[in-house]
Amino acid sequence: MSFQYIVFNKPFKVLSQFSSDGDKETLANYLKGISKDIYPVGRLDYDSEGLLLLTNDKNLNHELTDPKFAHKRTYWVQVDGDITQDAIKELEEGVVIKHNGKEHFTLPAKAEKMETAPDVWERNPPIRYRANIPTSWIQLTITEGKNRQVRKMTAAVGFPTLRLIRYGVDKLNLEGIAPGEYLAFDEQIKGYLRAKKR
Q1: Domains in the chain and their CATH numbers?
Q2: Does residue 87 contact residue 181 with C-beta atoms inside 8 Å?
């Protein structure tokens, strides 16, 4: 059996599934003609954008979603307010978030404030604009994937997420892939996805 690997740039307000759900857009609106046995690896929230990997390689799917493996996930995050270095340090050291009704202390992360906004596509609709309240961008790399984790982390340090783009997973990234477009890979993709067991 030949495996297929697809790196898709998921637009805002698209469900990470092929099955229909009312009038919401799904992957089926963008990924036409691909094999029926290809599924997303994990998920990317409806209101988040960016890199979504799809494959029919069940072993790779399992490894990428198994908490025992520390895969790096890099996000570009626009937050409400001019984020402080104290908040950046808190994100790096770990914060308490709610997960499945319990408190969870996030693993150490890598965080940095981006001095200029990244050169990304316009979102439709755009985030709300308020002249008297600035926004800022951070790059945040984590090695775990709790439900809505990044949003919960930035809220925990006082800077709610306004826009969330998953830019990369391990050495894979969105370079050259426009929203709604995808690149297909063969087995070589596994060289970009290397993780250590925790």
Answers
A1: 1-70+171-198 (3.30.70.580), 72-169 (3.30.70.1560)
A2: no
